[in-house]
Structures are given as structure tokens and as C-alpha cells.
Design goal:
homodimer; 568 residues; alpha+beta; BirA Bifunctional Protein, domain 2; YbaK protein; Rossmann fold; 3 domains; 9-stranded mixed beta sheet; 5-stranded mixed beta sheet; 31 strands; 29% strand; aminoacyl-trna synthetase (chains A, B); Anticodon-bd (chains A, B); EC 6.1.1.15 (chains A, B)
Chain lengths: 568, 568
């Protein structure tokens, strides 16, 4: 491709409000432009990388026997009613109405549409298992679009859905898919971790996420400092054992605590540790109020809480609701003397607090010498807090550390959770009607582009890996007005192209400096410069990754380039 | 592909409410399913045809030097403000709001986003001309989705946009694109016509549509019965000359005409011809009321009217507005004694009406012996009616006939109309800032699939052309429990696949009759049946298009198939 004929709008100066380096470099090197908040146009170079990613991913899917399909972006809104729990974050779904007031959504996922299709079209075990895939835009109403392609409203995904007659069959595809995802990420040269993840459903059987470690990631990984254990902090179980105290229980006492609201203020007021305090928070769980207790130094994990309570919906109670229920503000909630019908759910750590401190459900007062069971009833103790650094690893080896990562893929054995809701049944070998088993597999393609852009760069620009570079070779005549140089460059352009190299030919009338800066920004694996020694038939070859520079005769160029591109 | 592993849900019975045969057959042969009103899922076979179409179209675009890009589906609504006239049918644009109340639309076109990008990124004549293309879903809020893929809310398009420094350069690309479109449609084996079309803008330079003749088409073509002339009826000029009458003008007379409203009723009441009547219709043109007159046997063409008036917006006046303006109902409007400030625009044919009939702006009355100029003033005479069968062809050769067709593509020289609105300027060789010239080119890919489905079928199913068939060969062992048959079939499956044939291997445990019915429905070019003569190594080969049947030895199969697929 002649550079004069395509659009690569490199930038000398960067807008200062760009937060992450992948986004910065995609803008600077002319790969990407924002179209509107959280929505991007992929310029020609980015499109070429995406095409290569899509091709490779499609090949991997076909190899696994998955069938390509295209499901629509527009979906009827009522399709979500069956899968409410997948979308408790309803505000993330972009909604619209057509001219007939029909309520539509823009597909955040195609699990429901696919399952509906399966229900309608597949009746017999003979057609199972079957796996579909598609590569398509999905949509999400991000509350705060940022980090460029990492949190955008319109993004490109490969999704796959599999349906099975048995759990064993699902498990087999799950393992295959896990291998394929690993293979894809390895081919991209990405270091990833496959971590335990939220199954999101009470009976979801298994789920993993593929995470690339990164400080800008939105996923927190809890991992062991001694073993391979790694898990999404959203579901990591806490196996800490809390020693029960031998101290005697003191008499419960209500103390006036003016202006004392936060845990820090409580501790400083009573000169106590956070471990002596009980944090009380009111949730609305499937329409009923529940007081949830965790220790002062712990944080409630709403996903573990929801799973523990098998809740369909779970939201924080509003200030008004708390005022009406308890007659106090948020900072004064406590577990003692609650209205009947208000359940108390406590984290396991609460059980061993002796003579603790809690809110009094009365602004300006706290109870001290609070002891569970003696002073208030607990409906159940559950593991409902986030694991913390220093907690023992759930696998029994080492202690937990935390780090951030970017989720690039997820695989999930959904089991029969969704198929039951949709009545997606099949007739088995014995004539029995049963719900299909389902697997769900996602891979973020625009996200992979962003992760690669994050990793494959140095201070001068991108450093694309050979297989996924927009072009293979950047061919640059230093001075297009020098006939010898330009002729040799044109000649090499034709030869290289005929050998099936993808060549970007910088035929622009620009200063050499500009061309080299652009070339480094774009970051193709090999730069071939035709300069002063053109008359001798000598060209300069620079390897972008290593910075190595060679002078090769034009006659040996093809062989040497073939060798370079064949090697790893 | 083994048929047991993919999804081809053929139907024995059809829902009775399906109107057109392409849609019927796409459903029956298991290519398509409706997801919600006007929105479809492409099942695996349809996806394979689409992939082949996309690949061919991409190749044609690349050959022309167009650069692939991906522009987003989500667009800010305010982007339309500059191109109002492209979207006077605002209700066809699907709109939504994000959680920050930002108004968004789902792309009906990418002309505006692309032009905005050009304005921001291209400054110099050195970067022109440049042509981009993309293949992507577009959205339209169809008032009445029907005919399956032909009028759907979400559809697949190839769009291309070109930008130029001069009109000559635009013209050159326009001609190239016109050739490429012709070549694409020819490769698909479609008979099409390239007709003059609405440029939609006052200074749009030229536009053509590619139409495939079909009774279910929404486009009406006006063509000459003697020459090559063909044009979209929306813009076909009327060149009829209306002889002026020699008859004397009779005195104007107001006649009571109870219950007489339609043109037919008027004619029968007065025993006159429709050619003696004046139809009066009130439009609201850019906020002002205009009375538009055409002869009783003619129909107003709103696009010609809008263009003649250079109107930004043009709508019919409502009943209330007419009542308020004239004090009568729709059937009684006339051009005589109108309020001041209400303009009268008349079709050219009105000029030669002598002693005609018109409404009296008073319910229950008409005027007779109405003569233009004597009885009412006309602000201008314009060519504002639809051409009719029997009118002379505008090219001077023959008379006009009408037929219906499906628009599959359009090409348009937009000139500087849109680029001026977006200030998409460049600096020319002399340092002058000028608006770019723009071309816009669309090709409906899902529409092409529908058109092919309409044409390539017989009473038993599809008859796909070789190049765009979902697979090349349908390989069918009659009885999979017959070991000799199944072994030979499996062996041939591997051999054919290794020779790069796309093979659909019917490995299902179904009766032969079911398999053959399905095979005819799916309509691959060649069926290879392995039946009773398997033990002799003889297979039956049926050519779907001609119905020819051959018995070939397995040893000669590859050579003969190669020969068949190489031939035209």
C-alpha cells in the first residue's frame, strides 16, 4: 500500500487528558480516533490488526468445530426478563424504542437470543453437542467511558455458545475452549492468568477469566504468594480462622458519641481497634431489608453476599429507607433492637468479636460491649467479605496478595440455568425431555487490540509482533525526488509485494526525519530504507524490536527477510 | 462440514403469512430466522453465503484502491443537523439516550462521521483523492418491516466514501465505482439496470441506482420502450407537451356539488374528463403553506416538488391546518381566492387546461370554467408530477413504461454539498482553502442475499451459483448404517476436502427421502450420492441446476468435479 493513498494521521502532540499509554499510542500513531464519548473509529492500520486478530480467532474456532453465525444487535427488551441476574446492572444496557413503541436493547450479549434459537430449532440429542461463534459489536452504557478501547460503549467481541446433552459433554467443550483461549493468547504473546471467576448463577458450574496483569485493569486478582492459586477477588473464599476470645462478656452499654460516624472516628473515640468494631449496612434483598455485618477492617463483597443469600436482586437501602426503617442515618446503624422481620446476616469474622462496638440505631449513640448472640440474633454467618492481602490462600499454600488485571476473555459453564428459564429442552435417547447444558465463551477483540497496544510499544512508538502487525515492512525512500532512490524503492515494492509481503511504501514527499518518526510510531517489524547507497544497490534494514541495523544488497533482501519472518 | 454438527433447520411446513419467495425459501431451507420484528439471525448457511459475498466485494474494493475502515454504529444525534436533507425521514432513524442523557442514533449511514473525520485529519491536496470502504450493519426504523431481508431494521451494507480535490477526480472515481458495481452484480449473475436517481441535494452532481427488476421491489423504474433510457420515477422529468386549447373561456361559475369530493365523483357529476380537473393539495414548505396543483389524472411527485422549490422540509398540511387556513376540508381545496401569502405552484400540465374544474375552498361547492391566470395567479409552473406510462421518454425515443425493482446499490456524486456543511476543507496547490468533493457509494449485502434467494430457486429449493453457494458439494450416503456406503462416503469426504472443495457431508441418521428433500432445499450445485453401487465404487452425481444425473467411478470423481467447477 502506498502511504499517500491511505490514512495514517500521526500526531506530534498529544491531548493531555489521555490516561493510558495504549490509548495514547493508538491516537498518536494514527490507528484510532474518538467519534463520540466512549465510541471509536478504527482507522486503516487498526482495521488491519483487527482483521488479523479476527482471522486467527476464527481459524481457532473452526478448528474446534464451532459454527459461525450472525445474531442481530437489536434485541427485544423482554428477552432479558428470563436472565435478570445476568443484567442486574440494567443501567449498562442501552435501550431504545422503535416507532411502534416496541422496547429494544442493543445486544450486551447474545446468550439469550442464541438460547431462544436453540429452543426453537433443536429438539433431539442427535443434534447435540453443538457450538456456535460470532464476531460482532456489542454495546454497553459505560458509566464512565475511559481508557480508550478498554471501556467503550461499542466494542468488538468473539462470542461462542455451546449446547450439550450432558454435563460431561459441556465439560469437554469447556476444557477445549480453555485450551483454545490459552493458545490464542499465547500466539499474541500475552502473559495471562486464568483465574476462578464468578459463575453469577446459583448453580453455574464453573467459570474462569483470562486476565492480563495491568495496573489499569478493572479486575482484582487474589493470588497466593506461594502457589499457583489465583482467583477473581469477587468470589475468592476467605478461609481465615478467627480465634474465639476467652475474655468475659462485659455488660452492654449505650454511650453518647456526638459527631462520631466513621469507623475511624469510632476507634479513635473509644481508643479501640477496627477489629473490635462491627460495620452495619442495610441492603434490600429481593424486596426485604437485611442488616449485614462485617468487621470494621473488612469490606462487604456484594457478589458473595448475593450468592450466599441466593438473591435475585440486591441493592443498598437508600437514606430515606434507612431513616424510615430505623429512624437514624447511615453512620448509626447497628444490629441491636431491630424491627422484627429485619434479618441479620453476619460475616464469619463477627462471630468471634468479644465486647465489640456497634451503632445504636440512634444518631449520636453507640453500643459498647456488644456480643453477638447475647445482644442480638444472627440469622446466619456467611463468608461475605472481600479477601485481603495477608489472608491465608484458600488452597492452603501461602498468603494472599492482590494485583490488578484486564479481563480479555471469560469461559463459563452455565449449566442449565439459562436453558431452563427459556425452556430450551431436548429429547434424550430415552425419550425424556431435559434442559440442555450450556457453555458461554467470550473474547474481547477490541480489548485485545488495546492490550497489545499497551504492551507492544516503546518510547518511540509501537513494536508490533510479526503476525499481527498492520503491515510486515515499511519501505522508505529517503528522498522521493532522488530518481535512483525512488526507482529502487518502487522496484523493491513490486518485488516484495509479489513475494506476498505486506508492504507500506512511504511515497510521501516528506523530510526523512518526519518519515522516520512516523515509521517508529507505526512500528512495523522491519523498516527498509533506501538512501544514499541506492546507487550501489544497498539498502538499510532496521529491526524495530531490537533496533539492529543491517546493510543488505538488494539481491539478498528477499532471502534475508524470508528468513527473518520465518524465525520466531 | 458434517451436517450433524451444524444447524440447518429445514422446514416441511411454512408459516402462511410470509409474502415473498426469497424470504420463504430462506426460512424453509434453514438459512434465516426472525429474531424480532424486522430483525433476523443469519444461520450458518446464510453466514457462509454472506462471507463469500463480503470477500468478493472487499476484493473488488481493494482492487479499486479503497481503504478498509470501521466506523461506529453509535453516533451522536447532532451529527445529523448538518445533513438534514439526507434525513428528512427522521422517523426512520433509531434514536436512544445513554445514561448521561446524551442523544445518540444508530447509524443509518456513515457519510457524516466519515466527513467529520476527513475534516479533522486531512488538510492538504497531497492526501487527495482517497477512498474508504467498510462492511457493516446499518439501522433503519422501517415503518412496516416486511419481505424479510428486503426491508429490515438491521441490515448489512458495504459503504464507500471518496474525497477529492476536483470534480474531475470525483468523476473518475465515480465511473470506476460504477464499473466495479456492474462487475460485482454481473459476477452474482444478476440482471440489473443502472438508472438515474435522485441526487437529493440541490447541487448534487449525479446519482445512479443499481436496480434488479422485481415485482416486490420498492423502486419504480420509468424506462423507454425504444431506447436504453431508464430512471427512478422519483426524478424522471416529464417532457410531454400539452397543446393549448383554442376554445373560448366561459364565465367562471360556482356550482353546488353536494357529496362530491374525489376526482372520480367530480368527473361523474359534471360528466367531464379527469384531464379537465385540477387537483389542489396544500403542502407546508419550510413552514409556509403552498397550494400545489396537478391535473386530475396526474400524481404529485413530492421529490420533484421539493427539488423545484429548493425546500429544506416539505410535508402535507394536516386537516386542521387546512380547516384553519381555508375553512374547508381536503376534498374542497382550490386555487381561487386564496389568502394572501399562500403561493400557488402548478404542474406544467395545468397551464393548458381550458374551462376546467376546481374546488371552491368551501365544502359542497366547485368552480367550473376555471382558467389559470384569468381566475387565479400561479407563482410558478414546474415539472412536479410523476411520469406515467404512455408519456414520451425524456430522451426523445419511444414512450415510457413502468416496472418495479429492488435497489441493491447506489452511487452518488455529492460534490461539495456535505463537505461544505462540515467545513471539510483542504489546502490546494496554490494555498487556497476549498471544500473537498465527495462521492458516496452503497451496496446492500443482506439485500443482495435476498435478491439472490429470490432468483436462485425452483419449486424444490435453492439453486445456488457455484461461486456463492454455502458449500460446493452435498455428499450423501443413502444409508449411514450400510458400512460400505458410509466408508466410501467418509473416504470421499476426506479426499474432496483435501482438494479444497467445501463439502457438506450428510452424516445424519435420516431416511433417504428426507435427505434428498433437504438437499434440494439447501441447493448446493452438486450432490454426490453414495448408494447401492457403493460396493462397485460407483457414485451418483446430480447437478442441481440442470437436474442432470451421472454415475461416476470414484476414481474419476475429482477430475470431473474439477472440470465442472472450472467451467461456467
Amino acid at each position: 500500500m502506498k502511504q499517500s493513498l491511505t490514512l495514517i494521521p500521526t500526531l506530534r502532540e498529544m491531548p493531555s487528558d489521555i490516561e493510558v499509554k495504549s490509548h495514547k499510542m493508538l491516537l498518536r500513531a494514527g490507528f484510532l480516533r474518538q467519534s463520540t464519548s466512549g465510541v471509536y473509529s478504527y482507522l486503516p492500520l487498526a482495521k488491519r490488526v483487527l482483521n488479523k486478530l479476527e482471522k486467527m480467532i476464527s481459524e481457532e474456532m473452526e478448528r474446534l468445530g464451532a459454527i459461525e453465525i450472525t445474531l442481530p444487535s437489536l434485541q427485544p427488551k423482554d428477552i432479558l426478563q428470563h436472565s435478570f441476574r445476568f443484567h442486574e446492572k440494567d443501567e449498562e444496557v442501552l435501550q431504545l424504542k422503535d416507532r411502534n413503541e416496541r422496547q429494544l436493547i442493543l445486544a450486551p450479549s447474545h446468550e439469550e437470543v442464541m438460547t431462544q434459537l436453540m429452543r426453537d430449532e433443536i429438539k433431539s440429542y442427535k443434534k447435540l453437542p453443538i457450538t456456535f461463534y460470532q464476531i460482532q459489536s456489542k454495546f454497553r452504557d459505560e458509566s464512565r467511558p475511559r481508557y480508550g478501547l478498554l471501556r467503550s460503549k461499542e466494542f468488538l467481541m468473539k462470542a461462542a455458545y455451546s449446547y450439550h446433552a450432558t454435563e460431561e459433554s459441556l465439560e469437554a467443550t469447556y476444557l477445549q475452549m480453555s485450551d483454545v483461549y490459552s493458545s490464542i493468547l499465547s500466539r499474541l504473546g500475552l502473559y495471562y492468568e486464568m483465574i476462578d471467576a464468578d459463575t453469577r448463577t446459583a448453580d453455574g458450574l464453573k467459570a474462569h477469566e483470562f486476565i492480563v496483569a495491568s495496573d489499569i485493569g478493572e479486575t482484582t486478582i487474589a493470588y497466593s504468594d506461594e502457589s499457583n492459586y489465583a482467583s477473581n477477588i469477587e468470589i475468592t473464599p476467605v478461609v481465615t480462622s478467627y480465634p474465639s476470645s476467652e475474655k468475659p462478656m462485659n455488660p452492654l452499654e449505650k454511650v453518647e458519641t456526638p459527631q462520631v460516624k466513621t469507623i475511624e472516628e469510632v476507634c479513635s473515640f473509644f481508643t479501640k481497634e477496627q477489629t473490635d468494631c462491627m460495620k452495619s449496612i442495610v441492603f434490600k434483598v429481593d424486596g426485604e431489608f437485611v442488616v449485614v455485618l462485617v468487621r470494621g477492617d473488612h469490606q462487604i463483597n456484594p457478589i458473595k453476599l448475593r450468592n450466599a443469600l441466593k438473591a435475585q436482586s440486591l441493592t443498598l437501602a437508600t437514606e430515606e429507607e434507612i431513616e424510615q426503617l430505623l429512624g437514624c442515618t447511615i453512620g448509626s446503624i447497628g444490629p441491636i433492637k431491630l424491627p422484627v422481620n429485619v434479618k441479620v446476616i453476619a460475616d464469619l469474622a463477627i462471630q468471634s468479636i468479644r465486647n465489640g462496638i456497634a451503632g445504636a440505631n440512634e444518631d449520636g449513640y453507640h453500643y459498647i460491649n456488644v456480643n453477638p448472640e447475647r445482644d442480638f440474633a444472627v440469622n446466619s454467618y456467611e463468608d461475605i467479605r472481600y479477601i485481603q492481602e495477608g489472608d491465608p490462600s484458600p488452597d492452603g499454600n501461602g498468603t494472599i496478595r492482590l494485583k490488578k488485571g484486564i479481563e480479555v476473555g471469560h469461559i463459563r459453564m452455565s449449566g442449565t440455568w439459562l436453558t431452563e428459564k427459556f425452556n430450551a429442552n431436548f429429547i434424550d435417547e430415552n425419550g425424556q425431555s431435559k434442559p440442555m447444558y450450556m457453555g458461554s465463551f467470550g473474547l474481547g477483540i477490541s480489548r485485545l487490540l488495546a492490550v497489545m497496544a499497551e504492551i507492544y510499544q516503546d518510547e518511540n512508538g509501537f513494536v508490533w509482533p510479526k503476525q499481527f502487525s498492520p503491515y510486515d515492512i515499511h519501505l522508505i525512500p529517503v528522498n522521493i525526488h532522488d530518481e535512483v532512490q525512488f526507482d529502487l524503492a518502487s522496484q523493491l515494492y513490486h518485488i516484495l509485494t509479489s513475494y506476498h509481503f505486506d508492504v507500506l511504501f512511504d511515497d510521501r514527499d516528506e523530510r526523512a526525519g518526519v518519515k522516520f518518526i512516523d515509521s517508529d510510531l507505526i512500528g512495523l517489524p522491519v523498516r527498509v530504507t533506501i538512501g544514499k547507497r541506492a546507487s550501489e544497490g544497498i539498502v538499510e534494514v532496521k529491526i524495530r524490536r531490537t533496533g539492529e541495523i543491517f546493510e543488505w544488497a538488494k539481491e539478498e533482501l528477499i532471502d534475508r527477510l524470508n528468513e527473518y519472518f520465518r524465525s520466531h
